[in-house]
């Protein structure tokens, strides 16, 4: 199994703390996959600035294939960040070279060499999901907090759909049933400190969190997703995969960086 992160990457910058790090949903996911021992690639674009250089340096250090991480004239995407206690706050997004990112024919051929991809709503690749999935590539999609109608046209082309929500209630359970019926094999919802839920079309599965001192919640969902999908790759059950996700997320929130 080779796994690719496809689409958005950025630099999280905390001006008040004078700290920053390379990230993005798929970047965090793919770094964890590489650490699990899975062959991993990142397909995206960075700018010709120090942030782009750092992104490439970090991914190479993590043994991620960056042969299709394009360097474009301009600025690497950034998110201006802050902390509310230990909870990360997204303040401002500057898309930089990601604004015009699009897959090339060579990128598409490269994606098709992988068994699984991870992407999100900012990845600029939604139009290609039907082709990837029809070719046998498993599609993992992070919808973050978009528990609404936005995912509807995308869900038929997704194998594993991940959402973030705030509580285990009737609304989210009905939403998971609706979403799974549109196409995904499994729908997973992370609930912060309340744990997680997965639904496979027949049963709901729940898992709690591992309590650790929390430094920064950034990357919690991405690391959970990576842990869960690693369990899937290993042929583990949904409960086991939820547990691996929880363990992976616990290790991340106990540090400042998202991996």
TrEMBL record:
Alphabetically ordered keywords of this record: Kinase, Transferase
Listed InterPro entries: Carb_kinase_PfkB-like (IPR052700), Carboh/pur_kinase_PfkB_CS (IPR002173), PfkB_dom (IPR011611), Ribokinase-like (IPR029056)
Family annotation (SUPFAM superfamilies): Ribokinase-like
Keyword Kinase: yes
GO MF terms held by the record: kinase activity
Chain ranges of the Carbohydrate kinase PfkB domain: 32-78, 168-256
NCBIfam families assigned to the protein according to its UniProt record, in alphabetical order: PRK09813.1
Family per record: Belongs to the carbohydrate kinase PfkB family.
The protein, known as: Carbohydrate kinase PfkB domain-containing protein
Organism of origin: Paenibacillus riograndensis
């Amino acid at each position: 199994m080779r796994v690719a992160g496809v689409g958005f990457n950025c630099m999280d910058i905390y001006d008040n703390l004078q700290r920053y790090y390379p990230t993005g949903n798929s970047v965090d996911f793919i770094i964890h996959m590489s650490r699990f021992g899975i062959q991993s690639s990142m397909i995206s674009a960075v700018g010709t600035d120090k942030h782009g250089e750092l992104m490439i340096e970090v991914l190479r250090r993590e043994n991620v294939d960056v042969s299709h991480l394009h360097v474009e004239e301009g600025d690497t995407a950034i998110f201006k960040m802050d902390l509310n206690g230990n909870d990360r706050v997204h303040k401002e997004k500057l898309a930089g070279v990601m604004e015009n990112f699009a897959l090339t024919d060579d990128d598409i051929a490269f994606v098709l060499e992988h068994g699984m991809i991870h992407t999100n709503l900012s990845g600029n690749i939604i139009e290609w999901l039907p082709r990837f999935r029809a070719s046998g590539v498993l599609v993992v999609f992070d919808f973050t907090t978009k528990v609404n109608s936005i995912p509807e046209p995308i869900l038929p082309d997704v194998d594993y759909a991940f959402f973030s929500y705030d509580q285990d209630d009737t609304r989210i359970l009905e939403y998971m049933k609706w979403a799974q019926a549109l196409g995904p094999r499994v729908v997973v919802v992370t609930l912060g400190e309340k744990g997680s839920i997965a639904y496979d079309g027949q049963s709901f599965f729940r898992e709690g969190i591992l309590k650790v001192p929390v430094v920064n919640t950034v990357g919690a969902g991405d690391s959970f997703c990576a842990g869960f999908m690693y369990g899937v790759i290993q042929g583990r059950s949904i409960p086991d995969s939820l547990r691996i996700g929880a363990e992976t997320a616990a290790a991340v929130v106990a540090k400042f960086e998202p991996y």
